[in-house]
Amino acid sequence: xxxxxxxxxxxxxxxxxxxxxxxxxxxxxxxxxxxxxxxxxxxxxxxxxxxxxxxxxxxxxxxxxxxxxxxxxxxxxxxxxxxxxxxxxxxxxxxxxxxxxxxxxxxxxxxxxxxxxxxxx
Length: 121
Hints:
This protein is mainly α. 56% of the residues lie in helices and 5% in strands. The protein contains five helices and two strands. The chain has helices spanning 4-7, 33-49, 64-94, 99-106, 110-117, and strands spanning 23-25, 30-32. Helix 4 (99-106) packs across helix 5 (110-117). Zn(2+) binds at residues 10, 13, 32, 35. Belongs to the ClpX chaperone family.
């Protein structure tokens, strides 16, 4: 069984937790200390500039090739979030929480929740 540290990656830059100093976890996502530093720099720059110009989505400034290179990272983050969600649902099932309650929490039917997560419990 692989070490959990090998599975954890930053949801932003996709670096492994073993390649950075610190990774902070949120509900289904993780952020490394390097990305936090970058975020802090961006926020500080925004405070200094106080720009009022509307912001375009990031992909508006990217070439098709750059977007294609970025897609696997987005898919990997989605897979990480899905894995985390399956873990949470599996834990709920160990507490005998019903498929109906899990489905309601996720905005889906009991049947849909069972079909999506049944193999993990």
